[in-house]
Amino acid sequence: MRVQDVDLSGADDPTVLAWAAKEGRIILTYDVATMITFAYQRIEAGLSMPGLFELSRRVLVGLAIEEVILIAECSLDGEWEGQVRFLPLR
Predict the structure, then answer these.
(1) How far is CA 32 from the centre of its chain?
(2) Strand pairing report for 84-87 and 52-55
(3) Which of 63, 1, 61 minimizes the C-alpha distance to 28?
């Protein structure tokens, strides 16, 4: 699901993170400049943050897809709560 699909296109990072927490959605983003700061702020404030995966634009599309599929198929519910990770994981 994309932010555009839920009428959050152009929304600021805290709004997107709050929506993701409410919906129990992990975020996958290229926004390595600001999203991580707001994610850590949520964690420090004791707010829900189901997980954030930051993806460098330099990662090949095929590798990014493989990583996302691996994470989706091998993760347990709630496994990424309160975590910020960078892709690729390897």
Answers:
(1) 11
(2) parallel
(3) 1
Using left for φ > 0, alpha for ψ between -120 and 50, and beta otherwise, residue 51 falls in left
Give, for all 90 residues of the chain, the pLDDT tens digit.
888 899 999 899 999 999 999 999 999 998 878 999 999 999 999 999 999 999 988 888 999 899 999 999 999 999 999 999 998 876
Whether the bond between 88 and the residue before it is cis, its omega within 30 degrees of 0, is yes
Element (H, E) at 82: none
Task: List the domain boundaries for the chain.
Answer: 3-87
- What number of residues does the chain have? 90
